[in-house]
Amino acid sequence: GAPRAAGAQDGPGQLLELLLPGYFEGSFLVRISLAEAAMFSMSLLLGSSHLLPTTCCLYALGASWGPAIASGALWRLITPVFLHASLPHLLSNVLFQLRFGLNVERQLGSWRLLGLYVLSGAFANLVSAAIDPMKLAVGASTSCLGVLGAAVAGMVRHWDEYPVEQRRWVIYASLILVCLLLSAHTDLFGHLGGFVGGMCLAALLAP
């Protein structure tokens, strides 16, 4: 048959690049996003009300809770990253980390990004539990902010290599952070800890 027009071939790829800059097959962030979606589905099956996982279910699956962590349940610093309180909560975090993290994964490599993702989330949950220990916390936003911190750190480290238009990205990222920190019903200290942790880890892990 006749070959397809170049625009028809490039259309889906251009749309994907627009939605998820830096997307590539085999990405760790894509896999972790699928794992988080699977965990949300499991939490609904194990215990839910009105399509929301119950508090008891989230606690049983590993939500962050200060007294439990202080008693030695250190896995609760990591497991909350894979748990979400609602479908919008899950979708917003997945979209955020894919939107801002794929280029970071290209720069650092998948294994380094894995370390940054887990450690920034754990550090953020530790800070959050230390400051507000009686709060039951779940969500990948701690690691998402770690990814954002790494993206900003990478931009600052290579500032002179970017054109002026791309430097504006740092301003946009900073505005996003401020909006997240000031929005209601969010873990202020968890988000701030994730962002700072991500920036520091990016400096240590950068190849």
Automatic annotation (TrEMBL):
SUPFAM superfamilies named among the record's database cross-references = Rhomboid-like
Q: Does the keyword Transit peptide apply?
A: no
Q: What are the GO cellular component annotations? A: membrane
Q: How does it sit in the membrane?
A: Multi-pass membrane protein
Give a GO biological-process term. proteolysis
Task: Please indicate which superkingdom the organism of origin belongs to.
Answer: Eukaryota
Enzyme Commission number(s) from the entry? 3.4.21.105
The family database entries (InterPro entries) matched by this protein are listed as: Peptidase_S54_rhomboid-like (IPR002610), Peptidase_S54_rhomboid_dom (IPR022764), Rhomboid-like_sf (IPR035952)
Q: Where is the Peptidase S54 rhomboid domain?
A: 72-206
Kindly state which keywords UniProt assigns to this record, in alphabetical order.
Hydrolase, Membrane, Protease, Serine protease, Transmembrane, Transmembrane helix
An example of a GO molecular function for this protein is: serine-type endopeptidase activity
Q: Where in the cell is it found?
A: Membrane
Q: Which family does it belong to?
A: Belongs to the peptidase S54 family.
Name-wise, this protein is Rhomboid-like protease
